[in-house]
Write a structure and sequence with these properties.
By secondary structure, this protein is α+β, with helices and mostly antiparallel strands. 17% of the residues lie in helices and 18% in strands.
Amino acid sequence: MWIGVYRLPTEAEWEYAARAGAGEHLGAVEAKSDLNDAAWYRENSRTGRPHAVGQKALNAWGLCDMYGNVAEWCADGYAADYYATSPADDPAGPSAVDARVIRGGSWDHPAPACRPAARSSAKPDARSATVGFRVVLQVAP
């Protein structure tokens, strides 16, 4: 039996999953034309709301909707300059801040906001039809 806890991913975990471990390059999602195959964003959404999950191409790890559709909350607090001073391996963002990190872009964002490195933030009590969440299962050792 697996014992674990569900939680929001850290910002670093989210980006690693979005890139499917591919580092700086994403392969099929590098060009805007390829983004049409992988994401709902402002230029192709045309609905005024999120789409049903799983209608676009999966990434190399079989994860859907990592870009576009809805941007996703991360567990980390937001600091604009955090990556300039953070550790290189698996950084966890600051916890004592007024805003939390949001990644992935949404159906109402332009293509550049759907890049895996694009980040934004909002106060934790903010509500929006463009923001959702994805959970990870942290398995106990």
